[in-house]
């Protein structure tokens, strides 16, 4: 037996030809001195040992400290340079689209209108091909609204809200199927585990999907009762680092009065967070608005039913009502950015 005191050794088997190597050549018997049977016998493989001293401390250069790097992937066959150029030319690079369940119902002849989901899918496809990362939060009011059913037949609020969360999963799976039918890679993540039909919500995995050009649909709200899907949209937006919440509704934006009761109601193009809360405007619930305000997340409210509005909102064009910051800053931003 041969022993070595050095720590770094390189072992290799050398043979006259590759065909002479076999698994038995590296066994203990192959290392024993071969029996010479005839002059025509093939030469046995030789064991060569190359040893070196362990590297001294500091002999290898330290890798440069590049700091945290954000992974980038080209989208839909675009080169890396083309993808970077397209992404930098738009106002938003990562957005969260909030689609209410009622908007999915269309004319309310059925729970889900396939023409609405296909319209959403096509407009999302048009912007994801430009390299913009899109996440979606869906509501469930077209199927079941927990707050409306609480107290019926002994149904408590928590149980009613959980049923509503299941309704959002139904909408998410329907929307996923529609998007994938036109070639958009899509993942559904739920706030509580339903591993047979969707992924569990994992923040880092969701961000990875977005970086790879996939659409991520968040379902089941926050996973907790007493919180709306608007709050879920604000929460997920903050978690994944999206730059804006795009709230798709059945109206053109936020009005100073209810347009159903007053046809002369005026559309408000910009609003501050404070104006929404002090004037009690029914845009989003107060928890969602406060969460957006604390994390400086702007909100764009626009009409889902007008063709092209989703794509316009996602790329940052002027549409609907912009909420965030102070009114003066918003006016400058809205007028100077487009």
UniProtKB/TrEMBL annotation:
- Indicate yes or no for the key word Transmembrane helix: no
Q: What's in the GO CC field? A: cytoplasm
InterPro entries in UniProt: AceGlu_kinase-like_sf, Asp/Glu/Uridylate_kinase, Uridylate_kinase_bac
Q: Where is the Aspartate/glutamate/uridylate kinase domain?
A: 94-303
Q: Is Cell membrane among this UniProt entry's keywords?
A: no
The processes (GO biological process) annotated in the record are: 'de novo' CTP biosynthetic process; UDP biosynthetic process
> Which terms in the Gene Ontology molecular function aspect does this entry carry?
ATP binding; UMP kinase activity
Q: So, what pathway does this thing act in?
A: Pyrimidine metabolism; CTP biosynthesis via de novo pathway; UDP from UMP (UMPK route): step 1/1
- Which region is the signal sequence? none
Return the EC number.
2.7.4.22
- Name of protein: UMP kinase
Look up and give the organism this protein is from: Ananas comosus
């Amino acid at each position: 037996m041969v022993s070595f005191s050095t720590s770094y050794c390189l072992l290799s088997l050398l043979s006259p030809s590759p065909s002479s190597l076999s698994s038995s050549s590296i066994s203990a018997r192959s290392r024993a001195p071969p029996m010479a049977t005839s002059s025509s016998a093939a030469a046995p493989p030789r064991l060569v040992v190359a040893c070196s001293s362990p590297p001294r401390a500091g002999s290898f250069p330290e890798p440069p400290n590049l700091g945290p790097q954000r992974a980038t992937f080209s989208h839909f066959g675009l080169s890396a340079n083309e993808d970077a150029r397209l992404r930098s030319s738009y106002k938003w690079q990562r957005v969260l689209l909030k689609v209410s369940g009622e908007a999915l119902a269309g004319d309310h002849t059925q729970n889900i209108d396939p023409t609405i989901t296909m319209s959403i899918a096509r407009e999302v496809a048009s912007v994801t091909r430009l390299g913009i990362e899109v996440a979606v939060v869906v509501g469930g009011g077209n199927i079941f609204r927990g707050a409306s059913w609480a107290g019926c037949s002994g149904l408590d609020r928590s149980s009613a809200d959980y049923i509503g969360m299941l309704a959002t999963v139904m909408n998410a799976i329907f929307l996923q199927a529609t998007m994938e039918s036109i070639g958009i890679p899509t993942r559904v993540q739920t706030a509580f585990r339903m591993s047979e039909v969707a992924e569990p919500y994992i923040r880092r995995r969701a961000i990875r999907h977005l970086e790879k050009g996939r659409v991520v649909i968040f379902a089941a709200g926050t996973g907790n009762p007493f919180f709306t899907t608007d709050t879920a949209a604000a929460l997920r937006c903050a978690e994944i680092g999206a730059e804006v919440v795009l709230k798709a509704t059945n109206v053109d934006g936020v009005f100073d009065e209810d347009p159903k009761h007053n046809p002369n109601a005026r559309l408000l193009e910009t609003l501050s967070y404070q104006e929404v809360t002090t004037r009690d405007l029914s845009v989003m619930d107060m928890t969602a608005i406060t969460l957006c305000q604390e994390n400086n997340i702007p909100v764009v409210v626009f009409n889902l039913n007008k063709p092209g509005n989703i794509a316009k909102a996602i790329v940052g064009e002027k549409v609907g009502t912009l909420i965030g910051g102070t009114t003066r800053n918003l006016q400058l931003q809205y007028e100077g950015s487009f």
